[in-house]
Design goal:
Layout: E1 29-30, H1 36-42, H2 52-55, H3 61-64, E2 66-69, E3 73-77, E4 87-91, H4 103-124, E5 128-132, E6 149-154, H5 162-166, E7 168-169, H6 175-185
Parallel strand pairs: 1-7
Antiparallel strand pairs: 2-3, 3-4, 4-6, 5-6
Bound molecules: zinc ion.
């Protein structure tokens, strides 16, 4: 169900202090994310104490957009999704690059990534995924200080003209609904 959305539908979507929330900005503007501007205005990499991926696990799942928690890593919805269901898998520890991860963290990131693929495929019937990590700002990491693996579901028909003409991408569903659906489908 595509927009346009009424102001009531933005209820619960943060409009300030978005640096406290998880997410990785990219080149795309979202039609429905007014809080994005706060993020852009901050313009700096977070310190550990302000790092959104360190703070997210301290919040409850609805607040932080977390869909599942493992022992050494967790998965949450990207606040700046490329597509609906765009997840990030992060270690709890504030490390910047994959080679700094312990074997336990590598195992957990891999295990959670596999489960996330099954769950997202099941609930969204996507046709494929882009999975990967941007290591360092130069490589496109929005928050380069805290490792995160992207899991982006893809559909055969998901490309539209917006990204080409305006660096804008329409996301058809609100984050809270998507988070709930994925969390509900996550195996216990
Ligand atoms: Zn961190």
């Amino acid at each position: 169900m595509a927009g346009p959305y009424t102001p009531e539908e933005f209820e619960g979507v943060p409009t300030d202090a978005s640096g406290d929330l998880p997410g990785v900005p990219d080149a795309f503007q979202r039609l429905w994310t007014p809080h994005r501007m706060v993020y852009i205005q901050q313009g700096q990499q977070p310190e550990e104490h302000a790092c959104p991926f360190c703070r997210a696990p301290e919040m409850d799942d609805e607040q932080s957009m977390i869909v599942a928690r493992g022992e050494h890593a967790y998965a949450l919805l990207n606040l700046y999704p490329y597509n609906s269901g765009h997840l990030l898998v992060c270690p709890y520890r504030h490390i910047a690059t994959y080679d700094q991860a312990t074997p336990e963290e590598v195992d957990d990131i891999g295990r959670i990534t596999q489960i996330a693929m099954r769950v997202v495929r099941e609930v969204s019937r996507c046709d494929g995924f882009n999975i990967g990590m941007n290591q360092g700002r130069i490589a496109g990491a929005g928050i380069s200080e805290h490792l995160h693996q992207h899991i982006v579901p893809r559909w055969a028909l998901d490309a539209n003209f917006f990204p080409i003409i305006a660096k804008t991408k329409a996301i058809p569903r609100l984050l809270g609904d998507v988070r709930q659906e994925i969390a509900d489908a996550w195996p216990a």
